[in-house]
Amino acid sequence: MALENAPDHIKLAVDLIDLLEENQVSTKTAIEALKIVLRDFEKKQANKVTSES
Predict the structure, then answer these.
(1) What are the residues whose beta carbons fall under 8 Å from the beta carbon of 30, sequence distance 6 or more?
(2) DSSP per-residue codes, 20-35
């Protein structure tokens, strides 16, 4: 599958991987940062669902 035909979340994941690798971010640092980002977006999603109810 060509990337241009991939779903948006796949394109974003590839972009994030490229960004982290290009900036030589260590695996440990990337994982810790991504955990924070994931928690933040999960909270935003939960708040959105709550406010829509």
Answers:
(1) 20
(2) HHHTT--HHHHHHHHH
Classify residue 6 by its DSSP letter. Answer: S
Closest alpha carbon to 30 in 16, 12, 44, 9: 16
pTM, two decimal places: 0.80
Alpha-carbon dihedral of residues 12, 40, 38, 50, nearest 10 degrees?
-90
13 and 6 Cβ atoms separated by less than 8 Å: no
Residue 52 pLDDT class (50, 70, 90 cuts)? confident
